[in-house]
Amino acid sequence: MVLEDLIIRAASTGGIIFIDAGVYKITRTLYLPKESKIVGEAYPVGQRGEEGCVEWSDTIVATQGPQPGAIAIQWNLVSSETPSSMWDVHVRIGGFAGSRMQLADCPATPDVVATPSGPINQACVGAHTSMHVAPGLRGLYQENHDLDDATFTNITVYAGRGLNMQAEGNVWLVGTSVEHHSLYQYQLANTPAVFMGQIQLETAYYPLNPDASFPFAPSAELLDPQFSSSCNNGTGQCSGWGLRILNSQDIAVYGVGLYSFFRKYNNSCLFPNQEDCQKGILSIEGSQTRNVGILNLNTVGASSMIDIDGSSVANAADNVNVFPDTIAVFNLQSQSQP
Questions:
Q1: Does the pLDDT value for residue 117 go beyond 80?
Q2: Residue 263's beta-bridge partner residues?
């Protein structure tokens, strides 16, 4: 396509691509090669095994209509020397004009019981994953409202995974936000050396109707959590994780807000100080996980603030603050030495 050819030519000559303000509908994968520099006024970055640097800013990546297999951003590029960077790059799934997933298409239906066999509205399954960072990388917002509706009315749009990080490390996430995905918002899987500063998330508004075991089947390749077993007929962990750390090392999190405000679009689970919109919100798993440090952990709506291998180690009721529940410092040296 013309846009891809332009990006490739600019990257090969050290040029910068400026994309005029507007909406551009892309009907196939758009490849961003190494050395790309793009400034906006939606993409895989690199090919597997490719090394180099990309600088990318001021862009919204979105899907249109049902796209159950869509990965909005697939990051493959390895940056060994100069780190690659993204600033103000957003993924938006549904809830805006032109998305074909607005209030008239995907209304919230809290009183209609969803089951694996139906009635999930397949026209409102908007994305598989918002961003996947592939194994090998180093050096380096799905919506639950109709933003173009005057009252920001709730809608039901399904997106499976938020940010799935399967990298070789040296990753910095500063001032990032991931919201309203089914399985998890942030997942660090087999990823060492990650700094996360001032991250924020909200879980989906519709659980437990449906719970997180569907409509997205777990993928062994992507190391997805298994909610069909953990949900335990509605009594266990049935909602998607806020932050999941799996077999990862040297993780530093400085300032984090993990929020669950609704169950079946009803926020009565927050009052008065019930904190049971969902069971757990932060999961640390795997025998290879070690050296996890979290400063200023704030949660809302989850009865357990931290779970390790399926067991709660910090309850919200023991850490009540003004609005959120707060833990100042949490350190996990290894699974045997919290």
A1: no
A2: 266
Torsional sign, CA 206, 184, 295, 303: positive
DSSP 210: S
* C-alpha distances in Å from residue 169, one per residue of 80, 172, 267: 11, 9, 38
**Phi and psi (nearest 5°) for 123?**
-70, -10
Q: From the centroid of its chain, how far is CA 294?
A: 19
Q: Which distant-in-sequence residues (6+ apart) come within 8 Å of 245 by Cβ?
A: 187, 188, 251, 283, 284, 285, 289, 292
Mean per-residue pLDDT over the chain, rounded = 89
CA atoms within 13 A on the CB side of 27: 2
Q: Who's near 234: CB < 8 A, 6+ residues apart?
A: 208, 211
Distances (CA, A) of 150 to 46, 180, 233: 39, 21, 38
Query: Which tokens sit at 61?
Result: 């990546």
CA–CA gap between residue 315 and residue 331 (Å, rounded): 16
Assign 138 a pLDDT band (cuts: 50, 70, 90): low
Kind and range of the H or E run holding 11: helix 2-13
DSSP 8-state code for residue 4: H
DSSP β-ladder status, 249-259 and 290-300: parallel
**Amino acid at the residue 57:** S
**Single pTM value for the model:** 0.89
Q: Alpha-carbon Rg of the chain, whole angstroms?
A: 20
303 vs 332: CA distance, rounded Å: 20
> Under the phi-then-psi rule, with left for phi > 0, alpha for psi from -120 to 50, and beta for the rest, what region is 229?
alpha
Tell me the pLDDT band of 142, cut-offs 50, 70 and 90: very low
Among 323, 227, 232, smallest CA distance to 283 is for 227
Angle (CA) 136-142-143 rounded to 5° is 170
Would you call 79 helix, strand, or coil by DSSP?
Answer: coil
User: In terms of Cα–Cα distance, which of 229, 220, 230, 242 is closest to 302?
Assistant: 242
Cα 63 to Cα 42: distance, rounded to the nearest angstrom: 8
Q: Which tokens in the block code for residue 56?
A: 């990318």
